[in-house]
Specification:
Layout: H1 2-17, H2 49-59, E1 72-77, H3 83-96, E2 100-105, H4 116-126, E3 129-132, H5 147-152, E4 179-191, H6 193-198, H7 210-220, E5 226-227, H8 238-247, H9 254-269, E6 273-274, H10 285-296, E7 300-304, E8 331-333, E9 345-354, H11 361-372, H12 391-396, H13 399-402, H14 405-416, E10 418-419, H15 425-436, H16 445-450
Parallel strand pairs: 1-2, 5-6, 5-7, 9-10
Antiparallel strand pairs: 3-9, 4-7, 4-8, 4-9
Helix pairs in contact: 8-15
């Protein structure tokens, strides 16, 4: 599954680079720093461990460093497309913070043989502010823990983020490695209204339960009533699997998890559910996904809010972000919830981090706090589907008016009950890989969970 994680990382990297700030070459990455192993602190930090701690404590002494009169220079990781997104924001920030200078550095070169850790090590050698997608390993060695900044900044407004968004930027030890910047996607359950109308079945709605979900799949009573998403982070099982890891602090009780999800694989064995797949074993996954819809027409399926309608071949239009998207023809509901598991709708967030090598971390904090309070995306591109990370920005920016009215309530409920990924990314990926192998093991869930990954 490590290969899949790296693929996801580089896809995410392309998304992030297109929305950073404009580039300047005043600071450049140090050449020849790519390594095959993750470096220790003393191989890339400019000061010793004790000096670093002393420097951080000095910089965090807010009574001596006024947040209303901060001065410093920030180097932000950015590519040459960023000016379209952040040029005006940088000007506004400079008007409010005239003593803070923002410079820009190009992202370091990367290739498929790089690990995410190696890429971010190189990035942190030249940039103070770096955007990342949670779920990567070893970032705690590269980025500052920002909790002390959040605690001491009275203007931060932590409660204004959608529930769980701030937690999504933490590592497995609870360190706050970044501040939420953009919600890249929210995933839910699409449904074919016609299939429901034909049998007089009520549509899925915000707040529906897991029992109601299972009963709906049963009542639809057709082959592949429900098609699960092939991505491990978008499967209907994702929040249930992660809950088991949280309870075990990174490990699971196989018997307990098997009892919780056996219904899913029982229905998959009956061909009522099209189950989670291992995408690595199906390189033609998108083609098979479309073929599934052309042949069986599932009544419900899992996908991201801005996804296209499966099986239609419709593509996005650069001039119309609504062209070809599923929500124009199908219903959309958040993931089911329960009293024990209330945060379930998968959300992918990007976070703004500060390098441990930053010269002016307080100035960098001011910049990322400012960016977290702005609306990302435009009305005339696919970035419409990047949702504001703060509820107040969603209201003040008119974001809700951009969405079709029939999905607004479901999207808002999903944002209020979001699942931002696992704090145990490696254990989670390994576990989801195992679950994708259940059909190969005769649908024996417990046996599969107890089997070691080769």
């Amino acid at each position: 599954m490590k290969q899949l994680s790296c693929v996801n990382f580089f896809v995410g990297l392309v998304i992030l680079c297109s929305a950073c700030a404009p580039i300047s070459t005043e600071k450049s990455a140090t050449p020849g720093q790519a390594t095959s192993t993750f470096p220790t602190n003393d191989t890339f930090l400019p000061v010793s461990a004790s000096q670093e701690l002393e420097t951080q404590e000095m910089n965090l002494d807010f009574p001596e460093v006024s947040l209303t009169n901060v001065a410093g220079e920030i180097a932000m990781l950015a590519d040459d497309e960023a000016q379209k997104q952040f040029g005006e924001l940088a000007i506004r920030f400079s008007q409010e913070n005239s003593r803070i200078v923002i410079d820009y550095v190009a992202p370091p070169a990367y290739s498929a043989v790089d690990s995410p850790g190696e890429y971010f090590v190189r990035a942190a050698q030249s940039a103070d502010v770096i955007e990342f997608i949670p779920g990567q390993q070893n970032l705690s060695d590269i980025f500052l823990d920002l909790q002390v900044y959040a605690d001491r900044d009275e203007q931060f407004a932590a409660d204004d983020f959608w529930p769980g968004a701030l937690e999504g930027c933490r590592d497995s030890e609870g360190r706050l490695l970044g501040v939420p910047h953009r919600i890249i996607s929210i995933t839910g359950v699409f449904y074919d209204r016609k299939a429901f109308d034909e049998i007089g079945l009520s549509y899925p709605s915000p707040g529906w339960t897991w029992d109601q979900f299972r009963e709906t799949v049963r009542l639809l009573n057709k082959q592949y009533s429900f098609a699960d998403n092939g991505s491990s982070h978008q499967s209907i099982l994702s929040p249930i699997v992660d809950q088991s890891l949280v309870a075990g602090q990174g490990s699971i009780q196989p018997e307990q998890l098997a009892s919780q999800i056996s219904w899913y694989f029982d229905l998959a064995n009956q061909m009522t559910i099209y189950p989670l797949k291992d995408i690595q074993l199906s390189p033609e996954y998108q083609e098979s996904w479309n073929e599934l819809f052309n042949e069986y027409h599932p009544a419900m399926w899992v996908d991201a809010l801005g996804s296209s309608l499966p099986g239609t071949g419709k593509l996005y239009s650069p001039d119309d972000p609504m062209a070809g998207v599923a929500i124009m023809e199908a219903g959309f509901a958040p993931f089911p919830i329960s009293d024990e598991l209330a945060n379930t709708s998968p959300i992918q967030v990007s976070c703004l981090a500060i390098s441990k090598q930053a010269n002016d971390p307080v100035a960098a904090w001011k910049w990322i706090d400012f960016l977290s309070k702005q609306r990302s995306g435009t009305e005339t591109s696919a970035t419409l589907w990047q949702l504001p990370v703060r509820s107040s920005i969603a209201e003040s920016s008119g974001f809700w008016n951009l969405l079709p009215s029939q999905v607004t309530q479901s999207v808002q409920f999903g944002l209020e009950h979001g699942w931002y990924g696992s704090r145990y990314p490696e254990a989670y990926e390994n576990l989801q890989f195992k679950l994708s192998q259940v059909p190969r093991n005769g649908y024996d869930v417990l046996l599969t969970l107890q089997t070691s990954i080769p």
